[in-house]
């Protein structure tokens, strides 16, 4: 699966990345990340804990000689911890020249969501929506589009 997604990501091809999102599942919700941020997808692996970090930063991994911090998206969103299984993945992203791994319940697919099919999130509780950049309409479903910079910086 990783090889197929890496090929499909078309890394380094700005034009083919437009309107493309990697979708994934956290609990029962579908999320999307702009493909331009994604460097690769790997299976869950051993994470070395680092003291005095927020609970949602699970630790660090060694990925081919690079030390990368990993964040459990489920915990970042204030959800309950769930044991990792064979569907759990780490999405390695590069946002603002910061490499970080996002632990998600499972990766779904790379899909096109045209810009005109993305609307702003409702503003009824801004603290809950601070990581959501938009809501992508895909047929009868919606995908919550993440703001990668805010996910890392806030």
UniProtKB/TrEMBL annotation:
GO biological process, one term: chemotaxis
GO cellular component: cytosol
Domain CheW-like, first and last residues per copy: 18-154
Pfam families, A to Z: CheW
InterPro entries noted in UniProt: CheW, CheW-like_dom_sf, CheW-lke_dom
Domain of life the protein comes from: Bacteria
Family annotation (PANTHER family): CHEMOTAXIS SENSOR HISTIDINE KINASE-RELATED (PTHR22617), CHEMOTAXIS SIGNAL TRANSDUCTION SYSTEM ADAPTOR PROTEIN CHEW (PTHR22617:SF41)
Protein name, entry field: Positive regulator of CheA protein activity
